[in-house]
Amino acid sequence: MKLRFLTSSSNSGSCPSLYETDSGDIVVQGDKLTDPEAISQLRNVLPGEDFVVVPRSLLESLK
Length: 63
What we know:
Blueprint: E1 3-8, E2 17-21, E3 26-29, H1 36-39, H2 56-60
Antiparallel strand pairs: 1-2, 2-3
């Protein structure tokens, strides 16, 4: 799988960041969601899935 860097909301270009795969999917790099109350509200969590917090401003930068 090849990744293409799309954007970051970090001044240093580290994370959070968004990438696009060669098949058009999006990969998110960021802080792992660790708040137990928030995690308890997630639905249909499958083995191996994880959750990353994405600032709204980062997604809006793709417009």
